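re the bet — no i am not wrong, look at it urself. input seq straight from the record:
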Amino acid sequence: MNVSALWTALCVCMCGAATACSGKKPGNNSGRFVNATLVRINEYLSAGYKKGVRPVRDWRQSTTVAIDLMVYAILNVDEKNQVLTTYVWYRQQWTDEFLVWNPEEFDDVKQISIPTANVWVPDILINEFVDVGKSPDIPYVYVGNDGLVRNYKPIQVVTACSLNIYNFPFDVQNCSLTFQSWLHTTKDINITLIRTPEEVKEDKNVFMNQGEWELLHVLSKYKQFSVDSNEYYAEMKFHVVIRRRPLFYTVNLLLPSIFLMVMDIVGFYLPPDSGERVSFKITLLLGYSVFLIIVSDTLPATAIGTPLIGVYFVVCMALLVISLTETVLIVRLVHKQDLQSHVPQWVKHLVLEKATILLCIRNKKFCPLLSQGSDLPLYKENNMNTGGSSAVRCNHHSCEGSRDTGRNLGLGMTVRDTSPPVMDSILHEITSIRQFIEKKDESREIAKEWLQVGYVLDVLLFRVYLLTVLAYTITLGTLWSVWQIA
Protein backbone atom coordinates (compact mmCIF):
# COMPACT_ATOMS: atom_id res chain seq x y z
CA MET A 1 0.00 0.00 0.00
CA ASN A 2 1.44 3.37 -0.97
CA VAL A 3 1.44 6.59 0.96
CA SER A 4 -1.38 8.25 -1.00
CA ALA A 5 -3.74 5.43 -0.28
CA LEU A 6 -3.03 5.60 3.44
CA TRP A 7 -3.61 9.35 3.45
CA THR A 8 -6.97 8.97 1.74
CA ALA A 9 -8.12 6.33 4.22
CA LEU A 10 -7.01 8.51 7.12
CA CYS A 11 -8.99 11.49 5.79
CA VAL A 12 -12.12 9.38 5.39
CA CYS A 13 -11.83 8.11 8.98
CA MET A 14 -11.31 11.61 10.31
CA CYS A 15 -14.38 12.94 8.46
CA GLY A 16 -16.49 10.05 9.75
CA ALA A 17 -15.30 10.63 13.30
CA ALA A 18 -16.09 14.35 13.04
CA THR A 19 -19.57 13.59 11.76
CA ALA A 20 -20.21 11.10 14.53
CA CYS A 21 -19.02 13.54 17.18
CA SER A 22 -21.25 16.32 15.84
CA GLY A 23 -24.36 14.03 15.84
CA LYS A 24 -25.28 14.94 12.26
CA LYS A 25 -25.72 12.69 9.32
CA PRO A 26 -24.04 13.40 6.07
CA GLY A 27 -26.28 15.41 3.77
CA ASN A 28 -28.30 17.01 6.62
CA ASN A 29 -29.04 20.72 5.93
CA SER A 30 -30.15 21.57 9.48
CA GLY A 31 -27.57 24.28 9.56
CA ARG A 32 -30.03 26.59 7.83
CA PHE A 33 -32.27 26.65 10.96
CA VAL A 34 -29.58 27.21 13.56
CA ASN A 35 -30.82 30.72 14.37
CA ALA A 36 -34.56 30.14 13.55
CA THR A 37 -36.35 30.82 16.82
CA LEU A 38 -39.76 29.58 15.62
CA VAL A 39 -38.18 26.31 14.49
CA ARG A 40 -36.55 25.84 17.86
CA ILE A 41 -39.85 26.52 19.63
CA ASN A 42 -41.64 24.08 17.37
CA GLU A 43 -39.01 21.40 18.00
CA TYR A 44 -39.14 22.11 21.70
CA LEU A 45 -42.95 21.78 21.86
CA SER A 46 -43.21 18.76 19.59
CA ALA A 47 -40.58 16.77 21.46
CA GLY A 48 -42.49 13.97 23.14
CA TYR A 49 -45.91 15.62 22.60
CA LYS A 50 -48.89 13.22 22.37
CA LYS A 51 -51.80 14.83 20.52
CA GLY A 52 -54.08 11.90 21.25
CA VAL A 53 -54.09 12.55 25.01
CA ARG A 54 -56.06 15.29 26.75
CA PRO A 55 -53.42 17.92 27.63
CA VAL A 56 -53.58 18.02 31.44
CA ARG A 57 -51.03 16.91 34.02
CA ASP A 58 -53.72 15.99 36.54
CA TRP A 59 -56.32 13.75 34.93
CA ARG A 60 -58.88 14.82 37.56
CA GLN A 61 -58.85 18.35 36.19
CA SER A 62 -61.27 19.07 33.33
CA THR A 63 -60.34 21.04 30.24
CA THR A 64 -62.44 24.18 29.83
CA VAL A 65 -63.10 25.15 26.22
CA ALA A 66 -64.28 28.74 25.69
CA ILE A 67 -66.23 29.30 22.48
CA ASP A 68 -67.67 32.24 20.62
CA LEU A 69 -69.96 32.69 17.61
CA MET A 70 -70.48 35.59 15.19
CA VAL A 71 -73.00 35.33 12.35
CA TYR A 72 -71.57 36.59 9.07
CA ALA A 73 -74.41 35.88 6.61
CA ILE A 74 -77.71 34.05 6.16
CA LEU A 75 -77.23 32.07 2.97
CA ASN A 76 -80.47 30.14 2.61
CA VAL A 77 -83.68 29.34 4.45
CA ASP A 78 -85.34 26.21 3.04
CA GLU A 79 -88.86 26.13 4.49
CA LYS A 80 -89.86 22.94 2.71
CA ASN A 81 -86.95 20.87 4.05
CA GLN A 82 -86.69 22.85 7.32
CA VAL A 83 -83.01 23.63 6.77
CA LEU A 84 -81.07 26.81 7.58
CA THR A 85 -77.73 27.60 5.93
CA THR A 86 -75.58 30.21 7.66
CA TYR A 87 -72.00 31.39 7.47
CA VAL A 88 -70.49 31.98 10.92
CA TRP A 89 -67.18 32.87 12.46
CA TYR A 90 -66.45 30.29 15.11
CA ARG A 91 -63.80 30.69 17.81
CA GLN A 92 -62.66 28.31 20.52
CA GLN A 93 -59.91 28.53 23.12
CA TRP A 94 -58.48 26.09 25.63
CA THR A 95 -55.30 25.66 27.68
CA ASP A 96 -52.83 22.98 26.69
CA GLU A 97 -50.50 22.37 29.64
CA PHE A 98 -47.95 20.66 27.42
CA LEU A 99 -47.49 23.59 25.04
CA VAL A 100 -45.72 25.97 27.42
CA TRP A 101 -42.33 27.67 27.07
CA ASN A 102 -40.31 30.49 28.55
CA PRO A 103 -40.23 33.45 26.14
CA GLU A 104 -36.88 34.61 27.50
CA GLU A 105 -35.24 31.48 26.16
CA PHE A 106 -36.68 32.03 22.69
CA ASP A 107 -36.09 35.71 21.88
CA ASP A 108 -39.27 36.83 23.76
CA VAL A 109 -41.57 35.02 21.33
CA LYS A 110 -44.93 34.70 23.12
CA GLN A 111 -47.07 32.99 20.46
CA ILE A 112 -46.63 30.91 17.35
CA SER A 113 -48.85 29.22 14.80
CA ILE A 114 -48.54 25.50 14.44
CA PRO A 115 -50.50 22.98 12.35
CA THR A 116 -53.83 21.93 13.79
CA ALA A 117 -53.03 18.32 12.99
CA ASN A 118 -50.11 18.40 15.45
CA VAL A 119 -52.07 19.42 18.58
CA TRP A 120 -54.95 18.04 20.60
CA VAL A 121 -58.34 19.51 19.52
CA PRO A 122 -61.59 19.06 21.47
CA ASP A 123 -64.38 17.09 19.79
CA ILE A 124 -66.97 19.90 19.96
CA LEU A 125 -69.61 19.59 17.27
CA ILE A 126 -72.92 21.19 16.34
CA ASN A 127 -75.84 18.90 17.09
CA GLU A 128 -78.05 20.32 14.32
CA PHE A 129 -75.58 19.54 11.53
CA VAL A 130 -77.34 17.89 8.57
CA ASP A 131 -74.83 18.51 5.80
CA VAL A 132 -71.20 19.44 5.35
CA GLY A 133 -70.90 23.02 4.21
CA LYS A 134 -68.33 24.48 1.86
CA SER A 135 -66.05 25.86 4.55
CA PRO A 136 -62.43 26.91 3.91
CA ASP A 137 -59.80 24.76 5.56
CA ILE A 138 -57.77 26.63 8.20
CA PRO A 139 -54.80 24.34 8.95
CA TYR A 140 -53.22 26.35 11.79
CA VAL A 141 -53.92 27.34 15.37
CA TYR A 142 -52.32 29.99 17.53
CA VAL A 143 -50.45 28.82 20.65
CA GLY A 144 -49.36 31.20 23.40
CA ASN A 145 -46.40 30.69 25.71
CA ASP A 146 -48.83 30.05 28.59
CA GLY A 147 -50.41 27.14 26.71
CA LEU A 148 -53.50 29.02 25.46
CA VAL A 149 -54.56 27.52 22.11
CA ARG A 150 -56.81 29.62 19.87
CA ASN A 151 -58.63 27.90 17.04
CA TYR A 152 -60.43 30.47 14.85
CA LYS A 153 -62.18 29.46 11.64
CA PRO A 154 -65.16 30.34 9.41
CA ILE A 155 -67.80 27.65 8.99
CA GLN A 156 -70.69 27.25 6.58
CA VAL A 157 -73.30 25.67 8.79
CA VAL A 158 -76.14 23.63 7.27
CA THR A 159 -78.45 22.84 10.18
CA ALA A 160 -81.94 21.57 10.79
CA CYS A 161 -84.32 24.21 12.11
CA SER A 162 -88.00 24.21 12.99
CA LEU A 163 -89.24 27.00 10.72
CA ASN A 164 -92.62 28.56 11.42
CA ILE A 165 -94.02 30.03 8.19
CA TYR A 166 -97.50 30.90 9.46
CA ASN A 167 -96.63 34.62 9.62
CA PHE A 168 -95.02 34.74 6.17
CA PRO A 169 -93.84 37.24 4.89
CA PHE A 170 -93.65 38.92 8.31
CA ASP A 171 -92.12 35.90 10.01
CA VAL A 172 -89.36 35.76 12.61
CA GLN A 173 -87.33 32.56 12.80
CA ASN A 174 -85.43 31.26 15.81
CA CYS A 175 -82.85 28.63 14.93
CA SER A 176 -80.45 27.11 17.42
CA LEU A 177 -76.84 26.01 17.09
CA THR A 178 -75.91 23.66 19.93
CA PHE A 179 -72.20 23.12 20.61
CA GLN A 180 -71.21 20.17 22.77
CA SER A 181 -68.58 17.49 23.11
CA TRP A 182 -69.83 14.38 21.44
CA LEU A 183 -67.97 11.97 23.77
CA HIS A 184 -66.45 13.73 26.76
CA THR A 185 -68.44 14.49 29.88
CA THR A 186 -68.06 17.54 32.11
CA LYS A 187 -65.38 15.67 34.06
CA ASP A 188 -63.19 15.86 30.99
CA ILE A 189 -64.41 18.84 28.92
CA ASN A 190 -66.52 21.78 30.01
CA ILE A 191 -67.77 24.64 27.82
CA THR A 192 -67.96 28.36 28.51
CA LEU A 193 -68.15 31.65 26.58
CA ILE A 194 -65.25 33.84 25.55
CA ARG A 195 -67.41 36.97 25.81
CA THR A 196 -70.39 37.82 27.97
CA PRO A 197 -73.89 36.83 26.76
CA GLU A 198 -74.80 40.52 26.35
CA GLU A 199 -71.87 41.11 24.01
CA VAL A 200 -72.74 38.04 21.98
CA LYS A 201 -76.40 39.13 21.75
CA GLU A 202 -75.80 42.62 20.39
CA ASP A 203 -72.80 41.92 18.16
CA LYS A 204 -73.71 42.59 14.52
CA ASN A 205 -70.43 44.04 13.34
CA VAL A 206 -69.57 41.32 10.83
CA PHE A 207 -73.11 40.53 9.65
CA MET A 208 -73.89 41.30 6.02
CA ASN A 209 -77.44 42.67 6.17
CA GLN A 210 -78.15 43.28 2.49
CA GLY A 211 -80.10 40.09 1.84
CA GLU A 212 -83.64 38.92 2.49
CA TRP A 213 -83.04 38.22 6.17
CA GLU A 214 -82.14 40.58 8.97
CA LEU A 215 -80.26 39.46 12.08
CA LEU A 216 -82.05 40.56 15.26
CA HIS A 217 -79.81 39.05 17.92
CA VAL A 218 -77.96 35.92 19.01
CA LEU A 219 -78.93 34.51 22.39
CA SER A 220 -76.64 32.12 24.28
CA LYS A 221 -77.50 29.64 27.00
CA TYR A 222 -75.37 27.13 28.90
CA LYS A 223 -76.87 23.87 30.09
CA GLN A 224 -75.80 20.51 31.48
CA PHE A 225 -77.81 17.43 30.67
CA SER A 226 -77.59 13.76 31.54
CA VAL A 227 -78.43 10.72 29.50
CA ASP A 228 -78.27 8.00 32.14
CA SER A 229 -78.29 10.14 35.31
CA ASN A 230 -74.66 9.32 35.93
CA GLU A 231 -72.72 11.18 33.28
CA TYR A 232 -73.37 14.87 32.63
CA TYR A 233 -72.58 16.64 29.38
CA ALA A 234 -72.07 20.37 28.83
CA GLU A 235 -73.62 22.23 25.92
CA MET A 236 -73.70 25.84 24.78
CA LYS A 237 -76.74 26.74 22.70
CA PHE A 238 -76.83 29.81 20.47
CA HIS A 239 -80.28 31.00 19.32
CA VAL A 240 -79.95 32.86 16.02
CA VAL A 241 -83.04 35.07 15.69
CA ILE A 242 -83.64 36.40 12.17
CA ARG A 243 -86.47 38.33 10.55
CA ARG A 244 -87.57 38.38 6.92
CA ARG A 245 -87.74 41.68 5.06
CA PRO A 246 -91.31 41.76 3.68
CA LEU A 247 -91.06 44.56 1.10
CA PHE A 248 -90.55 42.27 -1.90
CA TYR A 249 -93.49 40.04 -1.01
CA THR A 250 -95.71 43.00 -0.14
CA VAL A 251 -95.19 44.56 -3.56
CA ASN A 252 -95.44 41.34 -5.57
CA LEU A 253 -98.08 39.41 -3.61
CA LEU A 254 -100.26 41.59 -1.41
CA LEU A 255 -100.69 44.71 -3.55
CA PRO A 256 -101.92 42.90 -6.72
CA SER A 257 -104.42 40.96 -4.64
CA ILE A 258 -105.62 44.15 -2.94
CA PHE A 259 -106.04 45.89 -6.29
CA LEU A 260 -108.16 43.04 -7.65
CA MET A 261 -110.36 43.08 -4.55
CA VAL A 262 -110.84 46.86 -4.86
CA MET A 263 -111.89 46.44 -8.48
CA ASP A 264 -114.39 43.79 -7.40
CA ILE A 265 -115.92 46.26 -4.94
CA VAL A 266 -116.04 48.95 -7.63
CA GLY A 267 -117.89 46.50 -9.88
CA PHE A 268 -120.94 46.73 -7.61
CA TYR A 269 -121.60 50.22 -8.96
CA LEU A 270 -122.48 48.79 -12.35
CA PRO A 271 -126.29 48.55 -12.91
CA PRO A 272 -127.54 45.18 -11.67
CA ASP A 273 -130.01 44.82 -14.56
CA SER A 274 -127.20 44.87 -17.12
CA GLY A 275 -125.09 41.93 -18.13
CA GLU A 276 -121.86 43.92 -17.93
CA ARG A 277 -121.45 43.31 -14.21
CA VAL A 278 -121.47 39.54 -14.64
CA SER A 279 -118.85 39.70 -17.39
CA PHE A 280 -116.73 42.08 -15.33
CA LYS A 281 -116.73 39.87 -12.25
CA ILE A 282 -116.03 36.72 -14.26
CA THR A 283 -113.01 38.50 -15.77
CA LEU A 284 -111.79 39.43 -12.28
CA LEU A 285 -112.20 35.85 -11.09
CA LEU A 286 -110.18 34.52 -14.02
CA GLY A 287 -107.50 37.15 -13.45
CA TYR A 288 -107.21 36.21 -9.79
CA SER A 289 -106.91 32.54 -10.71
CA VAL A 290 -104.00 33.32 -13.03
CA PHE A 291 -102.44 35.43 -10.26
CA LEU A 292 -102.59 32.51 -7.83
CA ILE A 293 -100.95 30.22 -10.37
CA ILE A 294 -98.09 32.69 -10.79
CA VAL A 295 -97.45 33.20 -7.07
CA SER A 296 -97.82 29.54 -6.08
CA ASP A 297 -94.07 28.96 -6.52
CA THR A 298 -93.23 31.98 -4.36
CA LEU A 299 -95.16 30.86 -1.30
CA PRO A 300 -93.26 28.61 1.13
CA ALA A 301 -94.69 25.13 1.49
CA THR A 302 -94.38 22.68 4.35
CA ALA A 303 -96.14 19.48 5.24
CA ILE A 304 -97.18 20.71 8.69
CA GLY A 305 -98.72 24.10 8.01
CA THR A 306 -99.87 26.76 5.59
CA PRO A 307 -98.87 30.42 5.79
CA LEU A 308 -101.57 32.92 6.63
CA ILE A 309 -101.07 34.66 3.32
CA GLY A 310 -102.14 31.46 1.57
CA VAL A 311 -105.34 31.46 3.62
CA TYR A 312 -105.74 35.13 2.71
CA PHE A 313 -105.56 34.32 -1.01
CA VAL A 314 -108.07 31.49 -0.65
CA VAL A 315 -110.51 33.72 1.24
CA CYS A 316 -110.12 36.44 -1.40
CA MET A 317 -110.93 33.89 -4.07
CA ALA A 318 -113.98 32.80 -2.07
CA LEU A 319 -115.11 36.42 -1.75
CA LEU A 320 -114.83 36.87 -5.51
CA VAL A 321 -116.95 33.74 -6.03
CA ILE A 322 -119.53 35.01 -3.53
CA SER A 323 -119.59 38.37 -5.28
CA LEU A 324 -120.15 36.70 -8.65
CA THR A 325 -122.91 34.50 -7.19
CA GLU A 326 -124.66 37.54 -5.70
CA THR A 327 -124.45 39.33 -9.04
CA VAL A 328 -125.95 36.37 -10.89
CA LEU A 329 -128.85 36.13 -8.41
CA ILE A 330 -129.60 39.86 -8.59
CA VAL A 331 -129.49 39.87 -12.38
CA ARG A 332 -131.83 36.89 -12.44
CA LEU A 333 -134.16 38.64 -10.01
CA VAL A 334 -134.43 41.90 -11.90
CA HIS A 335 -134.56 40.37 -15.36
CA LYS A 336 -137.80 41.26 -17.13
CA GLN A 337 -139.93 38.27 -17.93
CA ASP A 338 -143.58 38.00 -18.80
CA LEU A 339 -144.16 34.97 -16.61
CA GLN A 340 -143.11 36.64 -13.37
CA SER A 341 -145.74 36.94 -10.67
CA HIS A 342 -146.35 39.92 -8.45
CA VAL A 343 -143.96 40.66 -5.61
CA PRO A 344 -145.38 39.09 -2.44
CA GLN A 345 -146.60 41.49 0.18
CA TRP A 346 -144.17 40.22 2.80
CA VAL A 347 -141.29 40.86 0.41
CA LYS A 348 -142.55 44.38 -0.16
CA HIS A 349 -142.85 44.91 3.56
CA LEU A 350 -139.40 43.59 4.43
CA VAL A 351 -137.42 44.81 1.45
CA LEU A 352 -139.13 47.96 0.24
CA GLU A 353 -140.11 49.29 3.67
CA LYS A 354 -137.91 47.89 6.44
CA ALA A 355 -134.73 47.45 4.40
CA THR A 356 -134.95 50.92 2.87
CA ILE A 357 -135.22 52.46 6.32
CA LEU A 358 -132.38 50.28 7.63
CA LEU A 359 -130.14 51.16 4.70
CA CYS A 360 -131.16 54.84 4.76
CA ILE A 361 -132.33 54.69 1.17
CA ARG A 362 -134.37 57.77 0.25
CA ASN A 363 -135.48 57.50 -3.32
CA LYS A 364 -138.71 58.59 -4.96
CA LYS A 365 -138.96 55.48 -7.04
CA PHE A 366 -139.89 53.48 -3.96
CA CYS A 367 -142.79 55.77 -2.92
CA PRO A 368 -145.59 54.16 -5.01
CA LEU A 369 -144.71 50.76 -3.61
CA LEU A 370 -144.50 51.87 0.01
CA SER A 371 -148.19 52.88 0.09
CA GLN A 372 -151.12 50.55 0.04
CA GLY A 373 -153.04 52.61 -2.54
CA SER A 374 -150.55 52.15 -5.27
CA ASP A 375 -153.05 50.73 -7.73
CA LEU A 376 -153.31 53.69 -10.01
CA PRO A 377 -155.39 53.67 -13.23
CA LEU A 378 -153.24 52.73 -16.13
CA TYR A 379 -155.33 54.39 -18.78
CA LYS A 380 -157.30 57.59 -18.61
CA GLU A 381 -157.31 58.28 -22.28
CA ASN A 382 -160.17 57.72 -24.66
CA ASN A 383 -160.26 54.54 -26.62
CA MET A 384 -159.68 54.45 -30.29
CA ASN A 385 -162.40 56.29 -32.26
CA THR A 386 -164.49 56.95 -29.11
CA GLY A 387 -166.12 60.35 -28.67
CA GLY A 388 -168.19 59.77 -25.53
CA SER A 389 -167.29 58.49 -22.12
CA SER A 390 -166.05 54.97 -22.13
CA ALA A 391 -167.64 52.42 -19.90
CA VAL A 392 -164.29 50.69 -19.43
CA ARG A 393 -162.24 51.12 -16.20
CA CYS A 394 -158.70 49.77 -16.39
CA ASN A 395 -155.99 49.17 -13.88
CA HIS A 396 -152.95 46.93 -13.80
CA HIS A 397 -154.85 44.05 -12.14
CA SER A 398 -158.06 43.72 -14.20
CA CYS A 399 -160.10 45.36 -16.87
CA GLU A 400 -163.77 45.93 -16.21
CA GLY A 401 -165.96 46.57 -19.16
CA SER A 402 -168.21 44.98 -21.62
CA ARG A 403 -167.69 43.97 -25.12
CA ASP A 404 -170.84 45.94 -25.90
CA THR A 405 -168.99 49.25 -25.66
CA GLY A 406 -169.91 49.80 -29.19
CA ARG A 407 -173.36 50.92 -28.07
CA ASN A 408 -172.03 54.38 -27.29
CA LEU A 409 -169.76 54.75 -30.33
CA GLY A 410 -169.97 57.64 -32.73
CA LEU A 411 -171.77 60.94 -32.21
CA GLY A 412 -174.29 59.78 -29.67
CA MET A 413 -175.67 57.19 -32.03
CA THR A 414 -176.90 53.95 -30.57
CA VAL A 415 -175.77 50.78 -32.27
CA ARG A 416 -178.50 48.32 -32.78
CA ASP A 417 -178.22 44.78 -31.58
CA THR A 418 -178.42 43.77 -35.12
CA SER A 419 -175.16 45.54 -36.02
CA PRO A 420 -173.39 44.38 -39.10
CA PRO A 421 -170.77 41.61 -38.66
CA VAL A 422 -167.98 43.98 -39.74
CA MET A 423 -168.64 46.29 -36.80
CA ASP A 424 -168.65 43.39 -34.38
CA SER A 425 -165.32 42.23 -35.75
CA ILE A 426 -163.84 45.70 -35.34
CA LEU A 427 -165.04 45.93 -31.75
CA HIS A 428 -163.62 42.51 -31.00
CA GLU A 429 -160.22 43.48 -32.41
CA ILE A 430 -160.18 46.71 -30.42
CA THR A 431 -160.98 44.83 -27.25
CA SER A 432 -158.18 42.30 -27.93
CA ILE A 433 -155.66 45.09 -28.52
CA ARG A 434 -156.71 46.79 -25.30
CA GLN A 435 -156.34 43.58 -23.31
CA PHE A 436 -152.93 42.95 -24.83
CA ILE A 437 -151.77 46.44 -23.92
CA GLU A 438 -153.10 46.01 -20.39
CA LYS A 439 -151.24 42.72 -20.08
CA LYS A 440 -148.00 44.30 -21.27
CA ASP A 441 -148.44 47.17 -18.85
CA GLU A 442 -149.08 44.75 -16.05
CA SER A 443 -145.92 42.79 -16.92
CA ARG A 444 -144.02 46.05 -17.06
CA GLU A 445 -145.28 46.98 -13.61
CA ILE A 446 -144.30 43.55 -12.24
CA ALA A 447 -140.83 43.88 -13.73
CA LYS A 448 -140.54 47.33 -12.22
CA GLU A 449 -141.46 45.99 -8.78
CA TRP A 450 -138.91 43.19 -9.00
CA LEU A 451 -136.34 45.67 -10.28
CA GLN A 452 -136.87 47.84 -7.22
CA VAL A 453 -136.60 44.80 -4.97
CA GLY A 454 -133.42 43.80 -6.77
CA TYR A 455 -131.90 47.25 -6.32
CA VAL A 456 -132.61 47.22 -2.59
CA LEU A 457 -131.23 43.70 -2.17
CA ASP A 458 -128.19 44.66 -4.24
CA VAL A 459 -127.46 47.60 -1.95
CA LEU A 460 -127.97 45.40 1.11
CA LEU A 461 -125.70 42.62 -0.11
CA PHE A 462 -123.11 45.10 -1.30
CA ARG A 463 -122.87 46.70 2.12
CA VAL A 464 -122.68 43.32 3.82
CA TYR A 465 -119.93 42.29 1.39
CA LEU A 466 -118.10 45.57 1.95
CA LEU A 467 -118.24 45.18 5.73
CA THR A 468 -116.94 41.63 5.43
CA VAL A 469 -114.00 42.70 3.28
CA LEU A 470 -113.18 45.61 5.58
CA ALA A 471 -113.31 43.45 8.71
CA TYR A 472 -111.13 40.82 7.04
CA THR A 473 -108.62 43.44 5.87
CA ILE A 474 -108.43 45.17 9.25
CA THR A 475 -107.91 41.85 11.04
CA LEU A 476 -105.07 40.76 8.76
CA GLY A 477 -103.50 44.22 8.76
CA THR A 478 -103.52 44.32 12.56
CA LEU A 479 -101.98 40.86 12.84
CA TRP A 480 -99.24 41.59 10.32
CA SER A 481 -98.50 44.97 11.96
CA VAL A 482 -98.14 43.34 15.36
CA TRP A 483 -95.86 40.64 13.95
CA GLN A 484 -93.69 43.18 12.13
CA ILE A 485 -93.31 45.36 15.24
CA ALA A 486 -92.57 42.35 17.41
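see?? The two ends are 103 Å apart (CA to CA). told u. also Residues 397 and 442 are 7 Å apart (CA to CA). so pay up
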